[in-house]
Design brief:
The complex is a heterodimer of chains A (485) and B (278). Chain A is mainly α. Chain A has 24 helices and 3 strands. Chain B folds into 2 domains: 203 residues, Serine Threonine Protein Phosphatase 5, Tetratricopeptide repeat (Alpha Horseshoe); 73 residues, no CATH class. In chain B, helix 1 packs parallel to helix 3 and helix 2 runs antiparallel to helix 3. The longest helix of chain B is centred in the last third of the chain and has 32 residues. Classes of the chains: A mainly alpha (485), B mainly alpha (278). At the A-B interface, helix 20, helix 22, strand 2 and helix 23 of A face helix 6, helix 8, helix 9, helix 10 and helix 13 of B. Chain B: Belongs to the proteasome subunit S14 family.
Chain lengths: 485, 278
């Protein structure tokens, strides 16, 4: 289950802003810190989001020496956080600081945002270097600290920490341990109106449940938890994916298909693993619905190999050959069981029979039930009786249009009527129009406008005035907030 | 041994004796007392405290709930079955690293699957199925239920009915002497469901059936039973000349009328949406 790990971050498009002379990593980190600082003082969550995005671009360049240097720089030496975080980093003897850092002598103010950011960056470093034991300890320490912080500007950083917290436990296979903790964090996030945190934690909980196939609990939580859209595209994609999985298991295939396809479509291009998973599930759900996915689905870039077993499976269903279906299911059983789709594939048997039957019904106007049984390769004690009841159920469910003549033991297909004399085309047309309109509406809703972009540029003086006012207002609100608690 | 534990096991012995005697009233009483006793043990779910007697306590509690499930099947109380099963479940899922597995685990899980099938709760059936390991799916008790569901979905009802004879008796082992009748009860419920399904299918699939064939298909032993059933459940079927005609129940030909109201609504909604775009 690596799909989410791969989906973690988009490559940051903003990194170019500071790359003209390719400054050192430490320089970059400092820039990020100053971004966080301004964000924290001005209470602008947007800046912190950008800081995180920049951090992710730096991720591969992080080294233990750089990190310890960075910690020395921003955290007061001797403070609890500093000693704790430093203990996670391997010791390297380059104790002399760069000239660059020594000259600046930064003020060691203690913003909680910076502290949390340090936790985050150390945690990412530990996970990237596969020190999962340390990562777990670091994550737990950070979560304990987070519980006592109630600042809106921390929320963004916190939601990231939650994610890595869960990831570090998942990598060591102890996901069940933190379930109670996650639930508690979710409760805290709800009480603090931290919507991003709620969204993240809900997904982590769903992932946690689904990891152990606890679909029942997952669905109960999902249906009761409040839900927000539009805070984070990644979180929304994940939510849709989990939702799709739950609905598939609970046989609500139409809804499941909707969520899975939407998840696959919304996921960023870079999140290949995630999109492959979405596609796998979507293919099975479509097969279960009696649809045959188009060949282009299997030909998507970089996905051919991963989707190969599912392609073979689709082929077997399309032909309606039970024998071939069995062979495919056995040949790729290891893939299917690692994807945990084995049980779904067992369900598909029924669809294979249906398709086979539909093919027979189209090609023959009259055929004996014995032949039907033979063609479907029903291997049972009494194939004709089986075939008869299977055919009659297919007729009842509307899969084929035919009648059975019991006395003579044959199945008579009815003439297929002209589809254009019915309301069918109208309905199909309507559903497509509805889909397009819906897409358009969602696109409009998803548009973001930078604040005040429509106004004329204000003079410097006016701006200062306004900012002052805003800050005062914010201070008032913050004070009121404090009173509330 | 802990005095409380001794007391519980004595009670439990009495309960088992009553179960063998088919004395269900005293079973019920003893069971309620037992459940109250169990609340005193702190090692049981959801607390799972590590007390010195944890293993014994968990074992006996699991045993008690297994028998409670059994009892509810015997007295055909589906509500009680569900409650007892859910109380039993944590012992299988969450306590498996504290306890040796119970020999009755798979039969009970199989029973639960059958129950969900009988109640036509297919979604829950599949949710339960996801929780089972691949090795569990190989167990005859579970496999039996899974195959039943498949036949059911395909419409191979005669296979469902023949499953009555192929209940994996021996695997239910110790339970079997207690369960012999139960199974036929559950599967009887199955044949009732199947019958309705078959009737529904036949009505669509056949123009007519001879009474003999219909009897055979709908599992009636005599013509009279069939006639009663038709009268009660499907008064629209017509029985003449030794044949059952379903023709009447069929819908009339395709409707040629234009669904104008619906069309107007659709067109108006398009207009509204377009206006919003432009």
């Amino acid at each position: 289950m690596t799909q989410d790990a791969e989906m973690k971050e988009l490559p940051a498009p903003l990194s170019s802003s500071s790359s003209s002379v390719s400054p050192s990593t430490i320089q970059n980190l400092k820039e990020i810190v100053s971004l966080i600082e301004t964000g924290a003082y001005a209470r602008e969550v947007r800046r912190i989001v950008r800081a995180i995005r920049l951090t992710m671009a730096l991720r591969r360049k992080l080294k233990a020496s750089v990190l310890s240097q960075f910690l020395n720089l921003v955290l007061p030496t001797g403070s609890e956080v500093h000693t704790r975080l430093s203990s996670f980093l391997p010791k390297e003897d380059d104790c002399e600081m760069d000239v660059d850092t020594a000259t600046q002598a930064p003020a060691k103010h203690h913003l909680p945002e910076i502290e949390i950011f340090c936790y985050l960056i150390v945690l990412i470093f530990l996970i990237d270097h596969k020190k999962y034991g340390d990562a777990k300890a670091c994550a737990s320490a950070s979560i304990a600290r987070l519980k006592n912080l109630n600042r809106r500007t921390v929320d963004v950083l916190a939601s990231r920490l939650y994610f890595y917290y869960s990831l570090s436990y998942e990598l060591t296979g102890d996901l069940a341990e933190i379930r109670g903790n996650l639930l508690a964090l979710h409760r805290i996030a709800t009480l603090r109106h931290d919507e991003l945190g709620q969204e993240t934690l809900l997904n982590l909980l769903l992932r946690n449940y689904l990891h152990y196939n606890l679909y029942d609990q997952a669905e109960k939580l999902r249906s009761k938890a409040p839900r927000f859209e539009g805070h984070s595209n990644q979180q929304f994609c994940r939510y849709l994916f989990y939702l799709g999985k739950i609905r598939t298991i609970q046989l609500e295939y139409t809804d499941a298909k909707g969520s899975l396809l939407q998840a696959a479509g919304k996921a960023p291009i870079a999140a290949l693993g995630f999109r492959v998973q979405c596609n796998k599930w979507a293919i099975i759900v479509r097969l279960l619905l009696g649809e045959i996915p188009e060949r282009t689905v299997f030909m998507q870039k970089h996905m051919e190999k991963a989707l190969r077993p599912y392609f073979e499976l689709t082929n077997a269903v399309r032909i309606g050959d039970l024998e071939l279906f069995k062979i495919v299911a056995e040949r790729f059983s290891s893939t299917f069981s690692s994807d945990r789709t084995n049980n779904l594939i067992v369900r598909l048997r029924h669809n294979v029979i249906r398709t086979g039957l539909r093919n027979i019904s189209i090609s023959y106007s009259r055929i004996s039930l014995a032949d039907v049984a033979q063609k479907l390769r029903l291997d049972s004690a009494n194939p004709i009786a089986d075939a008869e009841s299977i055919v009659s159920k297919a007729i009842r469910d509307g899969a084929i249009d035919a009648t059975v003549d019991h006395a003579n033991g044959w199945m008579v297909s009815k003439e297929t009527g002209d589809i254009y004399s019915t309301n069918e085309p109208q309905a199909a047309f309507n559903s497509r129009i509805a889909f397009c309109l819906n897409t358009h509406n969602e696109a409009v809703r998803a548009l973001r406008f930078p604040p005040n972009s429509h106004k004329e540029k204000e003079s410097a003086e006016k701006r200062r005035e306004r900012q002052q006012q805003e800050q005062e207002l914010a201070k008032h609100i913050a004070e009121e907030d404090d009173d509330d608690f | 041994m802990d005095p409380k534990l001794t007391e519980v096991s004595q009670h439990f012995e009495r309960f088992k004796a009553a179960l063998v005697r088919h004395d269900y009233d005293s079973c019920d009483n003893l069971l309620s007392q037992l459940k109250v006793f169990l609340t005193g043990f702190r090692s049981l779910p959801p607390l799972f405290e590590d007390t010195p007697n944890a293993v014994e306590e968990l074992t006996i509690a699991r045993n008690i709930y297994e028998h409670a499930v059994l009892l509810s099947v015997k007295v055909e109380d589906q509500g009680a079955f569900e409650r007892d099963f859910f109380q039993l479940k944590p012992y299988y899922t969450d306590a498996h690293n504290r306890l040796p597995p119970s020999p009755q685990e798979y039969p009970i899980l199989g029973l639960n699957l059958l129950r969900l099938l009988v109640q036509n709760r297919i979604a829950e059936f599949h949710t339960e199925l996801e929780l089972l390991s691949p090795s569990a799916l190989e167990n005859p008790c579970i496999k039996h239920a899974v195959e039943l569901e498949q036949s059911f979905m395909e419409g191979a009802y005669n296979r469902v009915l023949s499953a009555r004879q192929t209940v994996p008796h021996e695997t239910y082992g110790y339970f079997m002497d207690l369960l012999a009748k139960t199974f036929s009860f559950i599967l009887y419920a199955f044949s009732a469901i199947s019958r309705d399904e078959i009737a529904g299918c036949s009505e669509k699939a056949y123009d007519y059936l001879s009474i003999n064939d219909a009897c055979q298909m709908l599992l009636f032993s005599s013509d009279q039973e069939l006639l009663d059933y038709v009268k009660e459940e499907h008064p629209e079927w017509e029985v003449t000349n030794g044949n059952v005609y379903f023709q009447k129940a069929k819908e009339s030909g395709p409707c040629k009328e234009i669904p104008s109201l619906q069309l107007i609504n659709q067109t108006l909604s398009y207009a509204r949406e377009l206006e919003r775009i432009v």
